[in-house]
Write a structure and sequence with these properties.
Two copies of one chain form a homodimer.
Chain A (H helix, E strand, L loop, with lengths): L4 H11 L6 H12 L3 H17 L1 E2 L6 E2 L5 H5 L1 E8 L2 H10 L4 E5 L18 H4 L7 E4 L5 H14 L5 E4 L15 H9 L5
Parallel strand pairs in A: 3-4, 3-5, 5-6
Antiparallel strand pairs in A: 1-2
């Protein structure tokens, strides 16, 4: 027998979140039903509120509640770390030591999906390179990420700016036995003295 | 650097859902930010709506939008399947063949956590046993679930009603090599002819 319509609707909403299947969505929906009235209303309000208050930083394209984000306002603008998505900024900030700013492309080049340079937040990157000493490419180490890094490097290097990218190799805590060939061969080529 | 307040708030809301850790909550919150305005508002409305419209069926205690649920209204009330939580009804309904009704206890007996019979939806179960031929205990095969099943069985059997419980054994598709001893010994004891 079908579940009540309002529950099915909420299950479908949860299914639209990344990586959420039917059973997980069901579990979330039931958890909402069992929340206190205040918590559920707060949850709904927080969803609406985030859409109303969060916009893109006009300098770097990251999420912010102001015109420019905290990072662009307060940090060293002579080093720019280029990432594909806002979530990558969160990951980079977790390492704690980076003092420069970011630039969020909101995607990577993908000719097959019709995403060329004009669909990405690239123009504003080129417009903020005055006085920049280094641009760090922190796109994913996959085909699209690599292509994007190489494309931007070719645009930026001729301006006399240093362009670097994150080192590739085996992950900490991973097992050489299970490392894929590409990762292992890159780690072998880039081996360092100890 | 900290993320905008409204994003942190939403991340915390998602963390209150079962099984959601910091990274997953972050991922969900960012997905909401990237939803269309209409989808986000719809999501918020569906959360509020489910709290407003869903209540407990006055017969079985399952979630419903009416006074009594569809299952209690339409199906064979001479067989009652007793489950701990509304989500267990969904799991049982997936098998498709069951024609009887349910009774949702909203918990299991747990003296250590202070959950005795009075905290569970037991009184209304005893009040609907007139004309019932069989009560099927479908609580989890763990200590609390077993204790609850045995407790109810001792209350109900003396009324001349058949009380059964779900068979225990090795799961379909599981591996005998990895089955725990209790499961394997229960499956051995309850072995059947082929």
């Amino acid at each position: 027998m079908k579940q009540p319509e309002s529950i099915l609707k909420l299950i479908n909403r949860f299914r639209s979140l990344p990586g959420v299947g039917a059973k997980t969505a069901q579990r979330y929906a039931y958890a909402v039903i069992e929340m206190s009235e205040a918590d559920a209303v707060g949850f709904a309000d927080d969803i609406k509120n985030v859409k109303e208050t969060v916009k893109l930083c006009k300098l770097c394209g990251n999420f912010t509640e102001h015109d420019t984000c905290e990072i662009c306002s307060l940090r060293d603008t002579s080093v720019i770390c280029v990432v594909a998505q806002p979530k990558d900024v969160v990951a980079m900030e977790r390492i704690g030591g980076y003092k420069g700013v970011y630039h969020v492309l909101h995607g990577t080049l993908s000719p097959l999906d019709g995403r060329g340079p004009d669909q990405l937040n690239i123009k504003s990157l080129l417009g903020r390179l005055d006085g920049v000493k280094e641009v760090i490419m922190a796109t994913n180490p996959d085909i699209e990420g690599e292509a994007t890094a190489v494309y931007l490097s070719r645009l930026i290097k001729p301006m006399g700016i240093k362009v670097t990218r994150l080192a590739q190799g085996i992950s900490m805590g991973s097992d050489i036995e299970y490392a894929d060939e590409v990762t292992l061969s890159k780690a072998f080529e880039a081996r360092t003295d100890i």
